[in-house]
Structure formats: structure tokens, C-alpha cells
Amino acid sequence: MKPVSAMAKNVHASTTMAIDTMYKKMKAEGMDVVGFGAGEPDFPTPARIVEAAVKALQDGKTKYTPASGLMELKEAVCERTLADCQLSYQPSNVLIASGAKHNLFIAFSVLLDPGDEVILPAPYWVSYEEMIRMCHGVPVVIHAGEDQNFKITPEQLEAAITPRTKCLSLNSPSNPTGMIYTAEELAALAEVCIRHDLYIVSDEIYGRLVYDGKKSVSIASLGKDLQERTLVINGVSKTYAMTGWRIGYTLANPELTKAMSCFVSHSTSAPATFAQWGAVEALRGPQDDVERMRQAFEHRRDLIVSRINAVPGISCLKPEGAFYAMVSLRQLIGKTLYGTEIRNADDFASLFLDRSHVAVVPCTGFAAPEYIRMGYATSDETINTGIDRLAAFLQNA
Ligand code: PLP
Q1: Is there an atom of ligand 1 within 6 Å of 99 CB?
Q2: According to the model, what pLDDT value does residue 17 have?
Q3: What is the 3-state secondary structure (H, E, C) of the chain?
Q4: Which residues pair with 337 in a beta bridge?
């Protein structure tokens, strides 16, 4: 048989999904495993949203919607974006697709010709690199270390630009670092993007999960020109505990929105109709549940950060948003634990899972091989048990 495509050969399975699958398998086998792998809220979807979707089904809303999404949902997206980001859009600027992930995939599909370069700040969420490659683009990675709070500078951006650069991929608040670019930092990056006529793909999926009274600013809100050249990616998965509903959206100029809508029409036709009705309720209904979950995440962030930083040999910066802690293993790399040399986070994560039954995500696939990611969208009890085991694992090694 002839081989699969060269592109397919180059795509790697998502490491975050792989760890989560392993953790769920161990759990199903009855093992006492603690998981920090998941990238989803542990809360159920608020009842008002579930009820709206059930009602939609009962009312017979079971047919296809337009490929770009329900008009009611596009309007709800515009209302919420105006309220949250002070950004004004029309329904013609909105595309609804199956989660932020699918929106990102289609965004890169319509932006990239083979060989076009996308500037990708690292540490990055594992899927960006693969998606850019799947869309025949070339990821150009800029590394931003802990010393710069995991955020790139305009000088780094400028230095990475070539005649093939098509866009900058931004993610603030970031998965995995939890860092947020300030308005001033965004303005400095934006100036470079405008001067080099770059698109900006701005993934703002964690925009409402921010702590210490901080605010997440959309780079698109910094000027009309920026709004034109930015594709804002967002969705209901993280904010409303709706990961399984697969509803996300893009806000972009009408030309891009139309091109993206064409892609949807020939691939998925549109996301599930009842899920779109649930998302209308999520965005338009009372937002108290969002604040309740945000407060819970902030409390857990405080707990996990203080506990990690009390364990000798590891440390982490305080995340400003999202629900992940990036834990530095720098002091452990090159050491031998339980007879195994720790060359990178992969070695550490598999040894820790094997010996202590705690699942963490190695950040090797996030271009940060000296770090693990611990998701704290989980209970205080899980956080305490996991860090107790981590401390014992390191102490007894
Ligand atoms: N963008 C980032 C940065 C994420 O961390 C995730 C999920 O982990 C997504 C997008 C995907 O979100 P969705 O569930 O809406 O596809």
C-alpha cells in the first residue's frame, strides 16, 4: 500500500491527551492515581446552560445551522465581546466552529501558503506547532524563559521576522505559563506586527480566568488596524466548563470570516445545533457561575503555588491566569532518581507516575523540556495529595 502523506507522518499525537488517557486508564483499573494532566474545569456545566440545550432539542432544533453558525450565537458572541473586551464586532465578523481548537486550525488553514512562517512564542500550547505544520506552515519558535516571565519582547519578535513571515501566534493568558501580556507589552508587539504587515492569531480562550484583579487585554482592542489584522480566537470550553460541547469562535475581518466559513461548510458543516443553543445561554445568561468558578481557580492557584514553592528542588512562578502551574525541574535535570537519570521532563513525569501514581504533563512538547505542567482545575484535596506525594518522591530519592 502507498504510504500516508508526508504531512500525516510529521504530526505527533498530543502529549497532554496521551498523559490524560494513561491517567484515566490507571484510574479505571482501580489504582489510586492523582491527576494534574487535564486542561478542563472539574465543575459541571452550569444547569441553566444544560437546560437551554435540552430545551432546544425538545423544541425540535435538530437540523443543520448555517455553516458559520447560528445568527443568535453570533449576536451573543458580539455582545459578550463588547462587554468583556470593549471590542465592537458585527455577526459578519464571527465564525462559530467546533471548539477554539478547530477555529485555530481553520484560521491557520486560510492564512498559510506552503512555507509561510508563523512566529510562535515558547513555551506554547502543544497543538499550535502541530496545527501550523498540518496547514503546511513553518513554526518559527521564539523562546521566552522564566527570567522574562515567559513573555517575548518586541526585539525578539523583530529578529525572527523574515520575508516569509505571515503571522504572530499569541496566547494570553497562556497555557502552559499562566502569564498575561499587559496592554503596554501588547502595544509594543503590535507596533512590530503593523510595521511588517503581519496577521495576529490571538488565542484568548482563558481571557476571563484571570486573578489578583488583573485584566486580560485583547491585542485587537488596541486600534482599528489591529482589529483588522487580528483573528481573535475564543470559546465557551474553559469559561463555562463546556469542554465537551465543542463550541468556539473566531472574530476576524469579513474576508477572513468568509474564507473560514467555506472551510467549515466543506468539513464539519457546523457544530452541533443544540450545543450552539447552549452556548447562546452561556454567553447571554447571568454570569455569576463564571465568577464562582474563577474564584475557586484563584484559591487553588494560591494553594498549589505556595505548596510547590515549599518543596526543595522545584519551584514555579505565580500564574496570573488560566489554570496551570509551570514547575521548574532545572535543579533536578541531570540527577539520578531511583536509579533513573532525569534527562528531561519526560523522564521525570513517567518515573513520578510509575512510582507515586501522580500524572503531570511534561512540557517537552511545549518547547520547555525542563518543566512540567500541573493543571489546578481540580480539588484542594487532589492538590494537597499530589504535592505531598511529590515532596515524598523527591525527599526519598
Ligand atoms: N487554546 C488553548 C491555549 C488551550 O489550552 C485549549 C485547550 O486546552 C484550546 C485552545 C482548545 O479549546 P477548545 O476546547 O475550545 O477547543
Answers
A1: yes
A2: 66
A3: CCCCCHHHHHCCCCHHHHHHHHHHHHHHCCCCCEECCCCCCCCCCCHHHHHHHHHHHHCCCCCCCCCCCCHHHHHHHHHHHHHHHCCCCCHHHEEEECHHHHHHHHHHHHHCCCCCEEEEEECCCHHHHHHHHHCCCEEEEEECCHHHCCCCCHHHHHHHCCCCEEEEEEECCCCCCCCCCCHHHHHHHHHHHHHCCCEEEEECCCCCCECCCCCCCCHHHHCHHHHHHEEEEEECCCCCCCHHHCCEEEECCHHHHHHHHHHHHHHCCCCCHHHHHHHHHHHHCCCHHHHHHHHHHHHHHHHHHHHHHCCCCCEECCCCECCEEEEECCCCCCCEECCEECCCHHHHHHHHHHHHCEECEEHHHHCCCCEEEEECCCCHHHHHHHHHHHHHHHHCC
A4: 340
Q: Which atom belonging to ligand 1 lies closest to the Cα atom of 102?
A: 16
Mutation to probe ligand 1, out of 234, 237, 366 (largest number of atoms < 8 A from CB): 237
Indicate the pTM of the whole model. Answer: 0.96
Distance, CA 355 to ligand 1 centroid (Å)?
Answer: 30
- Please name the residue whose Cα sits nearest to atom 7 of ligand 1: 39
pLDDT digits (tens, 9 = 90+) for 166-208: 999 999 999 999 999 999 999 999 999 999 999 999 999 999 9
Q: Which of 316, 248, 86 is nearest to 183 (CA)?
A: 86
Side-chain-facing half-sphere of 245: CA atoms under 13 Å: 30
Atom of ligand 1 nearest to the CA of 203: 1
Q: With beta carbons less than 8 A apart as the criterion, state whether 360 and 349 touch.
A: yes
Is the pLDDT confidence value at 15 over 70? no
Task: Confirm or reject: Cβ of 20 under 6 Å from ligand 1.
Answer: no
Q: Is the CB of 248 under 6 A from ligand 1?
A: yes
